[in-house]
Amino acid sequence: MKYGYYPGCSLKGISVEYDLSIRNLFQRLGVEMEELPEWICCGTLAAPSTSRLLGLATPLWNMAQAVRAGYEQVISPCSACLYHFKAAQHKLHVEPDLHPEVEAVIGLPLNGRPKVVHPLEVLSATEFEAVIRRSVVQDLSGLKAVCYYGCHISRPARVMQFDDAENPQSMDRLLRWAGIQALDWSGKVDCCGANFSLIKPAVVIDLGRRIFEAAKAAGAEAIVVACPMCHANLDTREQEIEAKFNTHYGMPVLYFSQVLGLAMGVPESGLGFRKHLVDPRPMLNTKCRCFGS
Amino acid sequence: MSGANGKIGAVMVVGGGIAGMQASLDLAESGFKVYLVEQQSAIGGHMAQLDKTFPTNDCAMCTISPRLVDTASHLNIETLTNTEVVRVDGEAGDFSVTVRRKPRFIDAKKCTGCGDCATACPITLPDEFNQELSSRRAVYKLYPQATPNAFAIEKRGEAPCRNACPIEQRAMGYVALIREGRFADAYRTIREDNPFPSVCGRVCNHRCEEACSRNAAGSTPVNIMQLKRFVADWAVTNVNSQISNFKEVAPDAKKVAIVGSGPAGLTAAQDLRRKGYAVTIFEALSTPGGMMRVGIPAYRLPYDLLQREIEDILSQGAELKLNHRVDDVPALLHDFDAVFVAVGAHTGIKLPIPGNDLPQTLVATDLLRQTALGASDQVKPLITGRRVLVLGGGNVAIDAAMTAVRLGAAWVGMTCLESREKMPAHDWEVRDASEEGIEVYPGRTFKEVTNENGHVTGVRTVNVNFRGFMEGRPDFDEIPNTETVISCDVVIFAIGQKPDLSALNGKVETIRNRTVAVDKDTLATNVPGIFAGGDAVTGTTFVVDAIAAGHKAARGVDAFLTQGLHPHVGQEWQVWPPQIEAIERLPEAKLGPVQLQQLMVVKSQSPRAIPVKRAASERKHDFAQVEAALTEAQAIEEARRCLECGICSECLQCVYACKAGAVNHDQREETAQLQVGAVILAPGFGMYDARLSPEYGLGRFPNVVSSVQFERILSPSGPYRGHVQRPSDGHEPKRIAFIQCVGSRRHDRNWCSAVCCMYATKQALIAKEHSPNLDCTVFFIDFRAFGKGFDAYYDRARKSGVRYVRAMPSAVKEIPGSENLSIQYTPGGDSITEEFDLVVLSTGIEPPPGAQELARRLGVALTPEGFCRTSPFWPLETSRDGIFACGPFTEPKDIPETVMQASGAAAKAMSLLASARGTLITPKVYPPETDTSGQEPRVGVFVCHCGTNIAGVVDVKQVAEYARTLPNVVHAETNLFTCSTDTQERIKTAVRELGLNRVVVASCTPRTHENLFRHTTREASLNPYFFEMANIRDQCSWVHTHQPEAATRKAQDLVRMAIAKVRLLEPLQRSSFPINRSALVIGGGLSGMTAALEIADQGFRVYLVEREKVLGGHMRQIHYLLEDTDPVDFLRGIVKRVQENGRIHVITNAQVIEFEGSLGCFKTTVSVNGNERRQIEHGVVIVATGAEEFKPSGQYLYGQDPRVLTQLELEQRLASPIPNTQYPTSVVMIQCVGSRDAEHPYCSRLCCGQAIKNALRIKQFWPKTQVHILYRDIRTYGFLESYYRQAREAGILFQRFEDDQMPAVTKDGDRLKVTFVDAMLGEEMTLQPDLLALSVAIVPRADAPELAKMLKVPLTQDKFFLEAHMKLRPVDFATEGIFVCGLAHYPKRVLREAVAQACAAAARAATILSKEAVELEPILSHVNEDKCDGCAYCVDPCPFKAIKLIEYQANGQTKKRVQIDSSACKGCGTCQATCPKGAVFVSHFKLDQLRAMVMAALEV
Q: Is the CB of B815 inside 8 Å of chain A's CB atoms?
């Protein structure tokens, strides 16, 4: 089956390395996906707070595109996009009367309900275990990481219907299959501060600090994430946090697709590590000598 | 079987917890046969897991263990453990219940609970009883005091490895033993099924490994074969031969001849010898072993090892005749009773191709045999330096090729039909061969052996497309133009072998003259008496199959020789073989994917151990072994990889260890039909699995535990022996947090579990008792201390420093490093984060596991939540007539209410089956007693080993010898288990034959065993009180484990004391007096009427005394319920039933004024209509006098403003309002008016529900009316919680005020004004309601103290009647024959709770009324009237108020002395201790008897 791929704005902007590494990883694993034609903004926070209908129309327009292009499943690597798609579908499901209204706005029929999935959901399925184990070419068993899921991958549980909302496991499992030490910790689903980054950075700095502290206490050398927002709030604020609290973490924040890609021999150019503010390469070099100095 | 009206006088109780035991005991005591069905291996239920119980802090185990003993020893209770109900047919009064009894694998009657089996068991499992905080063995006793006191074996099924093995070798068994380093035991386990461990440890095709569950888990199998070899090799140096099995051949033993000494023959020989037959083995060759000896090359199986195993077999007495070829098998029947033909398949086959007869063509079997027999001189010259080609691709071909290599061939090749992948030889064998330079030419057919001058030059082959064998013939196509000649000097055919069957003389049927035809179960041939097996029957196959054939043949021969021939019809061959009763095999223990995953995580991650092989270059020059054995460390590590699929490994070590012979691995599931008249369901409850609330981290963070786990942590018998410590590091915690409502009060679990607030408080208190500086914090929503004594207990906890925080933490986080836990909570506005060392989750109650299935099987309805559906009026009845329910299965509840319901359900069954009472019970009958008066004491002493429990420390033989030296002792012996059934017979025989008249047993504790030995003494025609017990286990061997010599001396002391006392004992007789079989019920409310009806329905007379003119009491003021049912109509029905019941005498307008007498013969005087006196004689009393509504006169403007009402008054108004008429726009309700204050410090329990009921009623009529309920804690326990939710959803506003800030009610002009501080907002608020309802307290009747004094029963501080025991005797008083129910006991819901309690009182009363007479225990206090001077020192200390001071006239003087009421006396002896004159004494513990013991103790 070929997946539709919805990168969303982040993966075309601040998180191009996520986009790059996802595409390369999936190619390496033989999972086919194609960017949705004519995709538009998922609506993010702005649309629903402007108008209820707009908040439904933007995600469902994308879904209608997916149906038109014949995709049964759409991969959405950004947790926020993912949430907006699932939430809109859920809303329509519990309130079927909204159908004509939304159809009228988007000018497309709402037939079919493509399944929107996070890449973690695709890869952490049991049948991928063997594929992933087989594809590992780089020994990363020295790498100790904590998986940071943030909020929307599995919450609200009723809508997202994926993984455990309180103690998610999918990313940990994936990393372990790839031979990486995924440590258990208590910060998995803590809040990164999300959009407060823009309006009240102090909140994000405080929450970010808690996450770094917890990761450090757990013995992690890196935080592995699966959401551009989480990544932005941690990676871009890390030095700020260090400065404010007069401490030092130097802890890289990596996308799961980057570490998996690394384990599977995707070259550095295909993973985009240079995009990070906290350069992970010196640390990773101590694990696998995969980068030039 | 059945009594009157076709009813059956037996009841089945499902569930052996406290409810099940209570119901069983009540029923059995009142004349019904009881089947107590329990799923687990012991009764006791959840209560046995608890440490202490609230609010009395009694030890739970101490409280229930007498119940356990009573239940287990009751003559009319049959306890069926490991049993479940399958279906119930029939109807109320006459049910047929099908039950399935799972095997326990231990005969509970023989098991003495000594635990030797558990010590021997190699399998360790998490102990569920200790909530997986500790481990137990696969053979286990649920808990130390488990009843029945017997072990059980847990099996999932037959392990796949054993299941796959032709001889059912217990692979998992010896693997487990190897893991434990118990190699000798492992060897014994192997030998159990296999006489050739060395052989099978080397050359087996190990189907066990193919079946190993590790394969399914994507791993490699356990290297079972190498483990076997390891043990076999270890045994060579460490274990002596097994000659211990030698059994003399009886002169008249039947004789069996065995032809062939291969694995089949030798195995059969061993088995038949063990069965006692005389066995002769005939072997044609010069050495025994068959193909093992001459077919398997020495580099794979050294001959000396084989020889050793053969000698082990022969040493058991079979005769072996070597060089003895049998030419006529049938002729052997002249000299033998049976013959087993196991000649093997030694004749090699050559292909019929040109050149096959050239001198350089050999068959593999000849090559191998000659090499093996040391005759290599004959073949060696042929091979050495030559080019050898082996034709064939099987294991034999490989053996031949490798042998050729070792004989010095210049080149060796192999060619075969099959492709390389499909070669029948194992892949690794082919690889080994390649390593040794053997070239393989697969996929060819052989056309000709080419020659030059009669000398072989090669084999002409053609490549083929081989597809397999069709009906024994190869199916292939030749590939054109592929003909080649493989050049060689010698050709060895290894294409198959066949047996030489010439000795059968054509009389024994064969299949195409290639193999012998046999019956598959017995291996019998068509000739009676001749059996055949092994390769001779199957064609060439593996050693293990031949061993299997040997076993089978032995069974067949034995069946034939013991049963003879079955009659056969004509010459029909199939009909005659004897029948072998096969033991049904356990189903294979197949692990599901989830189980596999879980096990793979916890079991060893090591890779499969591979033994070291000698390098090809080295090994190809000699016949020494190729493979080394695993090292000891490797073997243990490899054994750790076993997933233990079967749970029990069936290693049989328990069988060897059990001295009582109680273990039986052959037990299988049984189904039985039981006839009963009624069924009581008491399956208990389940605990919410808090792993389903992952935010709290149970199962993830070691220091987060569930409440049951914490209960076990607190328990002295728990995993840490009562030391409060953290699971992660064993440190004592300093800060513990309790989180309430985990799994309760949620939208998807819409009930309150009713017990958690109290048990958390108890746990906090007890934990603080363990370490006083401990900080305990309880996070809660509402504190629900609604039961009797609960609020006082809550207060006590707060005063002891337990901190209560009204906040619900949303998550628990672990702090790395310390493994402490951090909790963030928001008590008011600000969020607080706190650190704790241990977090206890107060997990809720849920329906018992399997409730759905149980309900389906029984056809009873459940609520949507999965609890048993009952109605407010009929709280004990399920939806199916004749099936009753009790305990938390009907709604979450605590122990006392559970016990009440259990007794209540018993009453329901008794009423239903009243006509069949007494029809199925067994009375105990004893022989007449021997008169021993005037005889010298003749004492017999029986000293118990208790397995190793006593004998492991105390030298019991020495104790017995010592006892023999003591005065009056005529006999002393030791017994393995003095309590076993056979020892009881020994004791009786000893009494009879030696003329004993006193019995002393030195063993365990009288608490559990005295009754047993008294029965035995009585059955030996002696007075049962001529028995005395010395506790040399609990009080000696157990506490002095490390001082055996001192312990032995102490045991002697104890025995000497017992003998000193027994010599002075006197015969005692039980006295009895008749019972007046009628009851007095005081109070005609719903409780009183219900009790009266239940008793009357059982056929007894009832006097129902009511103070008012009409019946109904408090219930008359109830007009509607939360549930949609009509209480008014119900009450009318009950009153009518009471009035129309001919056995109930209703006396209204009457008051009790005088009361006297005791159990069975009470006399009560009532005054009727204020002037008329009437005396009633009765056997029991039930107090059901109810309680009253508190009238808060003068408070909250009550009585001053008509708009201020009590809830009952409001209910009156709401009973029939006119909708849409003038309605209040605002109603305020104030909770706890008069409750939980200084005057009435208790919770009135029903007011929260009442307020919600009335509030919902208001909302129902006038949805726009605003209703505020001002409260402290909303205590909607159990299912009431759903109405609380409903009320909130209906828009009723609940506002909390602090305990010390009761709202104020004033008037603002004409308007009512309620002012209070909202605890949530912290702000003062004012409401101006149109109506103010006060939820007033329930208070005891003003005359309760007076009645209590008359009945001589106690009251609580709050003036409610005080029962005998808060937990387990909730309706009994300490004074026998008097019971309590309803609101007189404590506030409770009139329906459901009071009704159930009334039924319970009726059941308790029936246990007395059902008897003609009461028997009195003769160990009682007596007064020596001459010595007593009436000082009355003894009167007040008597805890049973059994002693009174009386005056009497003697010699014209008024004198005083005490008198003892025997019916009240319990023989405790307190009085004896107080008497300065020695005038009061307790029989059986008289001063001289005790003095003799003391003197004996001091003597040496």
A: yes
Which tokens is B78 given?
């049959």
Same domain assignment for residues A152 and A110: no
The answer to whether residue A130 sits within a structural domain is no
From chain A, pick out residues whose CB is under 8 angstroms from the CB of B811.
166
The pLDDT score that the predictor gives to residue B575 is 44
Distance CA B529, CA B519 (A): 12
What is the per-residue pLDDT for B570?
Answer: 43
Same-domain check for residues A266 and A198 = yes
A217/B700 Cβ within 8 A:
no
Q: Are B694 and A219 an interchain contact pair (Cβ–Cβ within 8 Å)?
A: no
Give how many domains chain A has, as a whole number. 2
Does the CB of B697 have a partner CB in chain A at under 8 Å?
yes
In this prediction, residue A198 carries a pLDDT of: 87
Give pTM, 2 decimals: 0.87
pLDDT reported for residue B246 = 67
Q: How far A189 CA sits from the closest chain B CA (Å)?
A: 10
Q: In the structure encoding, which two tokens stand for residue B288, read together? A: 């025994």
Q: Kindly list the distances between the CA atom of residue B312 and the CA atoms of B134, B192, B257, B277, B1315, in Å, as whole numbers in the listed order.
A: 42, 13, 19, 17, 97
Instruction: Provide the shortest C-alpha distance from residue B795 to chain A (in Å).
Output: 36
Q: Are residues A146 and A193 both part of a single domain?
A: yes
Locate B1380 and state its tokens: 């309590």
Which residues from chain A sit within 8 angstroms of residue B816, using beta carbons? 185-186, 214, 217-219
Q: Is B814 on the interface with A (CB under 8 A)?
A: yes
Q: Which two tokens stand for residue B386?
A: 């030559």
Please report whether residue A98 resides in a domain.
Answer: yes
- Any CB–CB contact under 8 A between B816 and chain A? yes
Q: Do A167 and B814 touch (CB under 8 A)?
A: no
From chain B residues 742-771, the ones with a CB under 8 A of any chain A CB are none
- Alpha carbon of A178: minimum distance to chain B alpha carbons (Å): 17
Distance CA(B31)–CA(B477), nearest Å, equals 85
* pLDDT tens-digit map of B1376-1386: 899 999 999 99
What letter would DSSP give residue B76? T
* Partner-chain residue, chosen from B694, B817, B822, that has the shortest CB–CB distance to A167: B694
The answer on A260 and A193 residing in a single domain is yes
| pLDDT, block means (10 residues), chain A with 293 residues | 94 95 95 94 90 94 94 96 95 92 91 93 88 90 95 91 92 93 92 90 94 94 96 95 95 97 93 94 86 53
Question: Is the domain of A77 the same as that of A183?
Answer: no
Q: What is the pLDDT of residue B1204?
A: 96
Say if the Cβ atoms of B815 and A186 lie within 8 Å.
yes
DSSP B500-566: --GGGTTTS-EETTTEE---TTT-B-SSTTEEE-THHHH-S--HHHHHHHHHHHHHHHHHHHHH-PP
Q: Between chains, do B816 and A166 touch, taking CB under 8 Å as contact?
A: no
pLDDT at B244: 56
Residue A96: CATH number of its domain: 1.20.1050.140
Give the domain-ending residue among A92, A119, A146.
A119
From the list B693, B700, B817, which residue is nearest A184 (CB)? B700
Residue A158: CATH number of its domain: 3.40.50.11810
Q: Is residue A128 part of a domain?
A: no
Beta-sheet strands, E only, within B1172-1240: 1172-1178, 1180-1183, 1187-1189, 1204-1206, 1226-1233
Which one of B813, B815, B816 has the shortest CB-CB distance to A219?
Answer: B816
Could you list the residue range(s) of the whole structural domain that residue A148 is in? 138-288
At CB < 8 Å, which residues of chain A contact B? 164-167, 184-187, 214, 217-219
Asked which of A90, A119, A148 is the last residue of a domain, the reply is A119
Task: Give chain B's residues under pLDDT 50.
Answer: 1-3, 243, 567-575
Would you call B697 and A167 a contact, using CB atoms and an 8 Å cutoff?
A: yes
How far is Cα B836 from Cα B34, in angstroms, rounded to an integer? 49
pLDDT of residue B21: 97
Nearest beta carbon to residue A217 from set B693, B694, B815: B815
Residue A200 belongs to some domain of the structure? yes
- Residue matched to tokens 């399998």: B123
